[in-house]
Every structure is written in C-alpha cells, then in structure tokens.
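hey so i finally got around to running the thing on that chain from the lab meeting. sorry it took forever, my laptop kept dying and i had to restart like 3 times. anyway pasting the input first so we r on the same page abt which one it is
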Amino acid sequence: MTTTGAVGALLVATGLALGVGATVAGGEAGSAASGPTAPAATGSRAASALPDAPGAGRPVERARWRWPAAPVPEVVRRFLPPASAYGPGHRGLDLGVAGAAPVLAVEAGRVTHAGVVVGRGTVTLRHRDGLQSTYEPVVPEVRVGDEVAAGERLGRLGTAPAHCGRRTCLHLGARRDGAYLDPLPFLVGGGHVRLLPLGTTGVSAR
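ok and heres what got predicted. didnt touch it at all, straight out
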C-alpha cells in the first residue's frame, strides 16, 4: 500500500469512528448511520431509482370504467366527500355533456333503478363486486332488471335547472355498500384529469 493509500484508509476509519463522512481520493464515504454512499445511477438505472419516473417498472393502473358520454366530456366539478352521512358535499362528478345526448353505461351491469327522484330522472346500475354507478338527470330508456353492456345506451340527458349553472351536465356517482366513492379513479385509472371552469370547452382527460 502506498503512503497516500495508507493515509486515505486512516481518514476513512477515523471518520466512521466519529460518525461523520471522510472524503478520500476516488469518492465519498457515507456516514455511520447511512452506510457507504452508493455510486450515482446513470441511464435507465437512474430512471428506475426514482419511484415516480416514467419507465420505472411500476405497472400503470388501467381504468375500470368507460366514460358515460362521447366524446370524452369535461369534468366541470369534482367529487367532494361529505363530513357526515347527511352533511354538505358533492357526491359524484359533474360532466359537461350536450343537452339530450345519449347517456352510456360505464360498465356492464344490471339496472336496479330507473325513474324519478326529487324531480330528476335517474338510473342506477349494479356492477360486479357490488359497485354501483348512478346517472342523473336522465330520461331512462331501460327498465329495472335489464342487463346492459359497457357502453350501452341507458337513455338521454335530461334537464336539472341550476345544477351546472347555465350549461347542461351529467352527474355521475359511485357507491359501494351505501358509501359514496369518487368516480374519477374508475374512469381514468393512472391517467391525469384537467379540471376546467364552467363554460370552457375541450377534453379533460389525457
């Protein structure tokens, strides 16, 4: 061992004993708590070292539901869970949909309700594992007990004064065991949604 190498080794040993890092020729020694510092990652190895980096090997969650209107509507109001069962909140998504547009099933299921609730036409579907989707305002074209496929027409958009200001919209809800859920993750999976203000046009999901 050369004199320089012996001095470097002595510095490293002293630094570890004191709980601090010691810099020597050719790299850095880590602290006693963290251990030696790993060499810097490069290329694809660097990407895999970042948990949120694209291509990190993490599977992308796919959307379970399809959108209940075509083309893909804007999300004009997001889900806001209530603080209590009867407290204020927004128990679903408001989607900007043209008046009288077809309303489509987000997933295959059975119609458990098709009628009027508090002056609004509504449709409810029960899907596999007990998840339910609700649609309003809708002029139903299905009946209770009907089995529908994903994307099948349930009816056409009805009217609900003042629900979305001056524009027409579809309220989409999700429930399981009586609890309201945010429908957005079922629609976009691992994608992203851009919330648009009322009166803005364009596609919100990307």
